[in-house]
Amino acid sequence: MSQRPILVFGASGRHGGTGYAVAKGLLEQGYPVRLISRQKTPDFGDLIERGAEQAQADLRDRPSLLPALKDVETAFFVYPINGGIVEAAANFASAGRDSGLKRIVVMSMGPAHPFGPSHLGRAQWLAEEIFRWAGFSCINLRIMAFFYENLALQHATEIREESRMENSFADLPLPWISASDAGRIALHAITHPDRFDGQTDFYPIGGEFITHTQIADLLSKKLGRAIQFRTISQAEWQARMEQRVGTDPRINPDMAKHISTMGASLTEVPPVTMLVPFQALTHESPMPLAQWVEQNIKLFQ
Fold it and tell me: Is there a single domain that holds both residue 194 and residue 124?
């Protein structure tokens, strides 16, 4: 096993925490881990106690990345659902080339495409192109599933206060996954790249396809009261989320535009042929939505 540290972004993320799952899994397997954040005192949970080291750097500031990349050959890269990823990728790629970085596992998104409907999806694709142009060996995990955690981020307040869940998604059976399971896929991409057959772009899914009405029914049973789902327009849902900017640090205008656009543009189930099951990449079983709801039911009460 290489003793070079593996650089991990996003270990203190407020939403989802795929970086935390990756770092924890690496430490449990005995890999040296270097966590990176902009803050001097980020909340890394128990990762520092488990043996991770910390580096302070900013993806908007190339010189700050150079010491963080010292002796690093492998990195896990994740960027918030926000603008700025192209500049961040350019800075990281340039610093990585100067520092000897060889391999990047990217926590990407399903809409990463040069002609996709979302401006953030197009920017994510361009960031991946930058890494490819820089000559790194990359695995782009274009997670083709919605995080369970989005249910709490986007709908917990209206479920608690109004017993309803409204967004711009049609009531289709969509793929879902927990953020921790998305992190487990990235962990396996780092530690078992042989399972990825030398390919670059992957579209992983979780364990089940579920409609929003089925999610509302599940919440109804767990909460003991009826929860209703209704599809609303892209503009209305975007406006609702934009009203939360400044009061919820996880919400920003780019995120509101991205997720509402994706909801309105998704009119059919993604073709199964392009999707890679969680089990095929990890040899493990994913967390069912019912289990996640049970563990997080207080968020909706």
Answer: yes
pLDDT tens readout for residues 106-154: 999 999 999 999 999 999 999 999 999 999 999 999 999 999 999 999 9
Long-range contacts of 149-155 (CB under 8 A, 24+ apart): 149/15, 149/16, 149/178, 149/179, 150/259, 151/215, 152/296, 152/299, 152/300, 153/15, 153/250, 153/251, 154/241, 154/259
Q: Determine how many CB atoms are found less than 10 A away from the CB of residue 82.
A: 16
Would you say residue 255 lies in a domain?
yes
Same-domain status, 49 and 125: yes
Pair 293, 238 in one domain? yes
Supply the angle between the helices 119-133 and 85-99 in degrees, to the nearest 10.
10
* Number of other CB atoms surrounding residue 171 within 10 Å: 14
10-55 tens-digit pLDDT: 998 766 789 999 999 999 999 999 999 988 778 898 999 999 999 9
Looking at residue 40, which CATH number applies to its domain?
3.40.50.720
Strand order in the sheet with 53-56: 53-56, 33-37, 6-8, 74-77, 103-107, 137-141, 201-202
Assigned domain for 171 exists = yes
Characterize the bridge pairing of strands 103-107 and 74-77: parallel
For residue 224, what are the domain limits?
A: 146-176+206-269+284-300
What gap in Å lies between CA 157 and CA 165, rounded to an integer? Answer: 9
The reply to whether 69 and 151 lie within a common domain is: no
How far apart (Å, rounded) are the C-alpha atoms in residues 161 and 301?
A: 9
For 263, phi then psi, to 5°, come to: -60, -45
Number of domains in the chain: 2
What are the φ/ψ torsions at residue 229 (nearest 5 degrees)? -110, 140
